[in-house]
Design goal:
Distance between the termini: 31 Å
Shape: globular
Radius of gyration: 16 Å
CATH superfamily: P-loop containing nucleotide triphosphate hydrolases
Number of strands: 11
CATH class: Alpha Beta
Structural class: alpha/beta
Order of helices and strands: EHEEHEEHEEEHEHEHE
Number of helices: 6
Number of domains: 1
Largest sheet: 7 strands, parallel
Helix content: 25-40%
CATH architecture: 3-Layer(aba) Sandwich
């Protein structure tokens, strides 16, 4: 793997991480991996990306955990009697850029002391933060940016998913890290 992996996270659940992941896989010619799938095992996020990406070279790597209950991964694992720990995760081997999609936001727990943000650090990945406009999105975005800064994680891209009022967009852009690239995509 030449480049650092990209870890797609969001300011919360249902902000469009999977669609953004598919767009980025297509545009960056990257492979895709969702380490933890909680719920929707009949049509997973990996299945969704596979269906959306047209590049035949894009490899969709299998999840490390496929949990039945659509809930926080730590809770789903507890219900199934599974322990999720740091040692459970190994990056898939690839010669291409690897795009990793997290579950929910940065502080979604995988266990009582292991969170999504810890996976980003463990994988030495750069972050992609997906933002959707809703009441509270400014607060959630700025908190996410601050958390990434505090952990010294490079925020490579911020993806504004859908339409944003100019006043909302302006506040987010004022707090934008210098090294970060803005990507705007229409709501799909």
């Amino acid at each position: 793997m030449k480049d650092k992996p990209l870890f797609v996270t969001g300011i919360g659940t249902d902000v469009g991480k999977t669609i953004c992941s598919a767009v980025l896989c297509e545009q960056l010619k990257a492979d895709y991996w969702k380490p933890v799938q909680a719920g929707d095992l009949g049509f997973t996020d990996s299945d969704r990306v596979r269906k959306m990406v047209r590049n035949p070279l894009t490899k969709i790597h299998p999840e490390a955990f496929r949990l039945k209950l659509a809930a926080s991964p730590h809770h789903s694992a507890l219900v199934e009697g599974i322990e999720i720990c740091r040692e459970s995760f190994k990056l898939p081997e690839t010669d291409r850029l690897l795009l990793i999609e997290g579950a929910g936001g940065l502080f979604v727990p995988l266990s009582s002391s292991f969170f999504m943000i810890d996976l980003i650090i463990q994988f030495e990945a750069e972050a992609v933060l997906v933002v959707r406009n809703y009441l509270g999105c400014i607060n959630h975005t700025l908190l996410s940016i601050e958390a990434l800064k505090q952990k010294n994680i490079v925020l490579k891209y911020i993806v504004l998913n859908g339409n944003f009022p100019e006043a909302t967009k302006a506040i987010i852009l004022e707090q934008f890290p210098e090294e970060t690239t803005l990507i705007e995509i229409p709501e799909f």
